[in-house]
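Hi everyone,

Forwarding the result from last night's run.
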Amino acid sequence: TRTRTRTRRRARARRARATARRTRTRTRRRAPSRAAARRARRRRRARTARTRTRTRTRRRARARRARATARARTRTRTPLQLAVMAVAETFFYSLNVFLAFELSQGATQDPVWSAGMFGETIGRLDPGGSMLVHMFGCYFGLAVGMWYRPAKASKESAGEERDEASDYNSNTFALFGTTLLFVLFPSFNAALALPAAQSRIAINTVLALAASCGGAFALSKFVPGNRFGPHEIHHATLAGGVALASTSAYFMPPVGALVVGFVVGIVSTACVLYLTPALKRFMSLGDTAGVQALHGVPGLLGGAVAIIIIAASDTIQDTLGKNANDNTMDFVNNKGPDSVARNFTVGFTFTFSPGELYGYGEDEAAGSERAINHIIMLVLSIVLPIVFGLITGAFLRVFGACFKTTVANEDRFQDKAAFVTPTDYAYE
């Protein structure tokens, strides 16, 4: 028993000494040297510097967001600014028409601004306003909108999408408005046209509108999802009327109106589906009314087609319309030589020549000579509204800053900012 007790004591003592040695060894190993201490201090300073840098970066980001929000308050147009913009747009529109007529040497040998000639001159150069009305309004509005792009804030993107989105009731009323425009577009294009060609322009417009409906529904069905979209149907179905608002409707045969309307309908649908979201995503340029898809691009294509048709108008008149009877019942009665073939090709003819349209007499071929005039008008109708729109937008920004006409950024799409809204206002 004593031997076992001594053996156990010695074993415990050996274990205790071994534990003490291991502890002293670890302690010696953990004792940092001067170099290690310096490295540790440097690491602590680096961590502190990184923390301060992150703090300063966050503070600067918050300050930038606050400044962007403050700027966004001045980037919102109020009803007073919209009234000023309407007056400026009317003045610049008249200036654009005057410059387009003067630089393209007018449409007649008489002075452009002589008494009673203004409406007739528009009817000769751009009867439905494809370039002077549709393109000008589109690019003027987009240029003004460049000064009022919203501040880029991720927290507000969901609210903006909700405010810009339409609902079932809005789409229903918009479809009713589309139907009215569809019915009234032929008279709009033919109102200022020469009386001898008003029926021709009206029928060409109807054919182009019908074809644009086909193009819009066709492309809308084949996009991902295979469903008809209300936005493209509201806009693209009217694109054919915008394209046929140019002078090309004077000389274009019905089959040409169908082809142009179908192509413009497809292009307008593509603009609604892809171009408008791209402008919003990459340039923060909102196009809530779809002016680019309905007025800008179709007007541009209509102006380009007008240049081609006007350049070939003499040939079209000589080969298809010369010595043809203007009575559309000849197609049924089959009167006169080749009347059926002519009416099938042209559909309906008119008794005046391109030279008579442009004021040079009945026998003088002046259509091809007037193509350069339409090229000048097309270029001016793109460049001038952008320049005028940027000038107007800059003036409105200064006007808003001087008169403190600001609206909160969160109220940019709300009626409550300018109108008395009922208690059951949906987006209150």
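Residues 107-117, 322-348 have pLDDT under 50 and may be disordered.

Cheers,
N.
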